[in-house]
From TrEMBL:
InterPro entries: RNaseH-like_sf (IPR012337), RNaseH_sf (IPR036397), YprB_RNase_H-like_dom (IPR038720). Transmembrane segments: none annotated. It holds the Pfam family RNase_H_2. Residues 55-218 form the YprB ribonuclease H-like domain. This is Putative RNase_H superfamily protein. SUPFAM superfamilies: Ribonuclease H-like. One of its GO terms (molecular function) is nucleic acid binding. The lineage of its organism: unclassified sequences, metagenomes, organismal metagenomes.
């Protein structure tokens, strides 16, 4: 069966990152067919950890994925002036669809990266997104596809400080830009206030920017342990 232009486009996009697991997007193709087509088109699979990297941070209405919802997410592409983002709308809060769209968009965007950096993301961001995906009956990313580096644990291992919060680490490293959100803004955002939602998205963007700066100053102390989303 001839390969369509759409199939070639999907293969070109996903094979370098997912390898034969790009079959997830090519339902009518066997593993052998995918590998043969990739060789014919000259598409190569990148080893784990190589390729695009990004800094991820999410904001939510609370800390528990079964009781709360995601307000926004941002991914800053490493070493580029590029921030991909999404924010829940007042209409989505009012009509009850909540964060389904932005969760779906985040999962789709994560497939474009080989490595993701977070701060305490292994305990909050990633489990929160996974929980919200399951809530909305969306398929989350299978384990082992995207490398995950949690900078919180790097900071905890190499630094002796009164607090390991990202703000404290940035203060130590002389990194400015961390913003604060008053409780009232969280409440207003969770209720669908547009200005409050926009403010939180701006805060979210600042966090991924300073996260990249913090990692660049700490990376020389990083171990070789490899973990995944």
């Amino acid at each position: 069966m001839e390969w369509s232009k759409l199939e070639d486009k999907l293969l070109t996009k996903h094979y370098p990152i997912l390898g034969t697991k790009s079959a997830k997007f090519l339902h009518n193709r066997s593993i052998d067919s995918i590998e043969h087509r990739a060789r014919r088109l000259g598409i190569k699979y990148m080893p784990i950890g190589e390729g695009p990297a990004g800094y991820l941070d999410i904001e939510s209405s609370g800390l528990q994925g079964d009781f709360n919802f995601m307000i926004s997410w941002c991914i800053k592409t490493a070493d580029k002036d590029e921030i991909l983002k999404a924010c829940i709308t007042p209409e989505e809060i009012f009509n009850g669809t909540l964060d389904k769209r932005i969760v779906k968009e985040l999962i789709e965007t994560l497939y474009d990266y080989r490595r993701i950096y977070t701060y305490y993301g292994s305990m909050f961001d990633v489990p929160m997104v996974r929980t919200r995906a399951l809530y909305h009956k969306l398929e989350f990313i299978p384990y082992g596809l995207i490398e995950h580096k949690d900078i919180y644990y790097l900071a905890r291992r190499i630094l002796r400080m009164h607090s390991k919060r990202l703000e404290s680490v940035c203060n130590l490293l002389g990194i400015k830009g961390k913003t604060h959100i008053q409780p009232r803004i969280w409440v207003m955002a969770s209720s669908g206030n547009k200005k409050a939602l926009d403010y939180i998205l701006g805060h979210n963007k600042k966090d991924v920017e300073i996260l990249e700066k913090a990692y660049k100053k700490l990376q020389i102390y990083e171990g070789r342990t490899r973990r995944f989303i």
